[in-house]
Specification:
The complex is a heterodimer of chains A (283) and B (308). With 283 residues, chain A is mainly alpha-helical. Chain A is built from 14 helices and no strands. By secondary structure, chain B is mostly helical. Chain B has two domains: 46 residues, no CATH class; 234 residues, MetI-like (MetI-like fold), CATH 1.10.3720.10. A two-stranded antiparallel sheet of chain B has the order 1-2. In chain B, strand 1 and strand 2 form a beta hairpin. In chain B, helix 2 crosses helix 14, helix 11 crosses helix 12 and helix 11 runs antiparallel to helix 14. The longest helix of chain B is centred in the N-terminal third of the chain and has 34 residues. The chains are: A mainly alpha (283), B mainly alpha (308). The interface between A and B is large, with 104 and 104 residues.
């Protein structure tokens, strides 16, 4: 990185400070504009109904009534539990399966390995909206509509996780595994005792990403759960909207409750989340 | 521990090579099976179901190219294709400019920039349903906070989501707001890979900041740019963000102006029960995505993102 002092051939020092201050001010204004909708959401959540369309950001008479209504008048806690359960289950199983597959595709030699990898790669860009019709038919045929299995199992499999883990395993040294192999350890033992502990950093980063993706997922749970006992929180909140079309104070309170867990995760694991996305580009 | 010698005996029966083969297949099996059933099979089935007429009771009748012929005659399909193209045409360049712009703005390390970066990325952490609800609230009819702000700048109060010429633009704005932080991070990763010496050398040669951007940053960002353009194109054509935002904010309206292909397909299947027709339309999108994947594959030299 070039330090600002190197620019002194062109500008006097005071000018550089000025340029930097302007630069920072622009960034700060844009950043505030970016998070304004989120601040607005929280603001309305604390406003009584009469104040919903007033334009001050700070509520005149802040109240918890909207939150209390949403948490007691609607089975919102149930929706949150469903989301938590499904997201955790998908994350754990997916990390387990993907690390196994990633390890085999990076390290073990067996006929057809390249073909298997290519086939997995070919599903890389296929997204849920384009396969939703046949996927629904398959899941219905398997008898998994309106079930936790239907919410969890199809969400486990994606090429992205396998891909990143394979890349990671290609980059770590082989010595430990080879020594273990010499000592007669089985491949399962090597995976369990050597590979998994070594992959802790990438597994924790992926765990956060998987959890977030599943907590926020909408299309799949919307499609396969008509029974409101199984609704995940995003379906619950979307349905909430059709019931309380004009009660924006309730809707913003519900939105705030749904957004808080993911925003909290972001604040806590900011570094891991940002780094794992930054390197997912072309590494 | 009685069975232990048995296991070893059996292993002795296999050569080391075959043991490795079996281990490899077993390790890949769960994921391979899952991907096959829940991704591969649906991709293939889209084409198969596309050749059938499916009635409300789930009975399939072979229809040949009937669904595809219907597609060509269906004006709503063409308006959905047009909406998708317009959405992509607006979304892809906006994401490129916003992503790169924000990355350049905050690329220098430091605590201030780290906070700003987190603020730019924060929308991406919120679910799309919430994103859509919050934005809808801000532009609702003529009483949302943004709708009321416009007259203060001498602009007419617009009901963004009620006006066919503005609704899709509104969906693009919300999509950009949600996605730009993600692309900013991808660009930041790319910018970090450009060696600082290049800039120092250029500075010694007297290159200004615009020249440095044009002759160093942009050319060396080519791989990142390619990746960003491709992935944002896929997001525009088939991304969940479009579906979620449109489903919550407009349901494809007004006057079908935001009925992009994935929304139209969903409505045909799950509101009207036309699974065969929906699958036929989806199969054309799958072909398009496979083409994009091929490009990505060729570009990354067989999926090796590490440039070995």
């Amino acid at each position: 990185m070039s330090s600002p002092h190197q620019g002194s051939a062109y500008f006097a020092r005071s000018q550089i400070t000025l340029v930097r201050i302007i630069w920072m001010a622009v960034a700060a204004v844009l950043a505030l504009m970016t998070i304004f909708p989120l601040l607005w959401m929280v603001s309305i959540a604390f406003k009584p109904a009469a104040e919903t369309f007033s334009s001050n950001l700070i509520p005149g008479a802040p109240t918890f009534d909207n939150f209390i209504y949403v948490l007691t008048g609607v089975p919102f806690l149930r929706f949150m539990f469903n989301s938590l359960f499904v997201s955790v289950a998908v994350t754990i199983i997916a990390l387990f399966f993907h690390s196994m597959a990633g390890y085999a595709l990076a390290r073990l030699r067996f006929p057809g390995r390249e073909l298997i990898f290519l086939t997995i790669f070919s599903t890389f860009l296929v997204s849920l909206p384009v396969i939703i019709v046949p996927l629904f038919i398959i899941v219905k045929w398997l008898g998994m509509l309106n079930s936790y299995a239907g919410l969890i199992i199809p969400a486990i499999f994606n090429a992205f996780g396998i891909f990143l883990l394979r890349q990671y395993y290609l980059s770590i040294p082989r010595e430990m595994e080879e020594a273990a192999l010499m000592d007669g350890a089985s491949y399962w033992r090597i995976y369990w005792n050597i590979i998994l502990p070594l992959s802790r950093p990438i597994l924790s980063a992926l765990a956060i990403l998987f959890f977030l993706a599943n907590w926020n997922s909408f299309l799949w749970p919307l499609t396969i759960t008509s029974d409101s006992k199984l609704w995940m929180v995003q379906v619950g909140i979307a349905n909430f909207k059709s019931q309380y079309a004009a009660a924006w104070n309730y809707m913003m309170a519900a939105s705030t409750i749904v957004a808080i867990p993911t925003l909290a995760l972001f604040v806590i694991f900011q570094r891991q989340i940002i780094n794992s996305i930054k390197t997912s580009g072309l590494k | 521990m009685n069975d232990r010698p048995l296991v070893i005996n059996r292993r002795r029966g296999l050569s080391a090579k075959h043991r490795e083969w079996i281990a490899g297949y077993l390790f890949v099996l769960p994921d391979a099976l899952g991907l096959l059933i829940f991704l591969g099979l649906p991709m293939v089935l889209s084409f198969v179901i596309g050749f059938f007429e499916v009635d409300g009771f789930g009975a399939y009748t072979f229809a040949g190219f009937g669904n595809y012929a219907r597609m060509i005659r269906d004006p709503f399909f063409w308006s959905a294709a047009k909406a998708t193209a317009l959405y992509a045409l607006m979304l892809v360049p906006s994401l490129y400019v916003c992503g790169l712009g924000l990355a350049l703005l905050i690329q220098k390390p430091g605590r201030f920039n780290a906070v700003i970066r987190a603020m730019f990325f924060a929308p991406h952490m919120v679910s799309l349903v919430v994103v859509a609800l919050v934005w809808q609230f801000m532009v609702v009819d003529k009483i949302g906070v943004i709708s009321r702000l416009l007259p203060k700048f001498g602009l007419p109060a617009i009901s963004f989501l009620g006006d066919p010429s503005f609704a899709l633009v509104a969906v693009v704005v919300v999509s950009v707001w949600f996605l730009m932080g993600f692309y900013m991070l991808i660009f930041l990763g790319g910018l970090q890979d450009i060696p600082a010496e290049f800039y120092e050398a250029a500075e010694i040669d007297g290159a200004g900041s615009i020249a440095r951007f044009w002759y160093i940053t942009l050319p060396l960002l080519k791989p990142t740019s390619f990746f960003v353009l491709l992935v944002s194109m896929v997001a525009a054509v088939a991304g969940a963000q479009a579906f979620d935002i449109i489903y919550v904010m407009t349901r494809g309206g007004p006057a079908n102006s935001t009925s992009v292909l994935i929304v139209y397909i969903y409505q045909q299947a799950f509101s009207l029960g036309a699974f065969g027709y929906a699958a036929a339309m989806a199969s054309t999108l799958i072909l398009l995505l496979m083409l994009f994947t091929l490009l990505l594959f060729l570009f990354t030299r067989g999926g090796r993102f590490d440039h070995e």
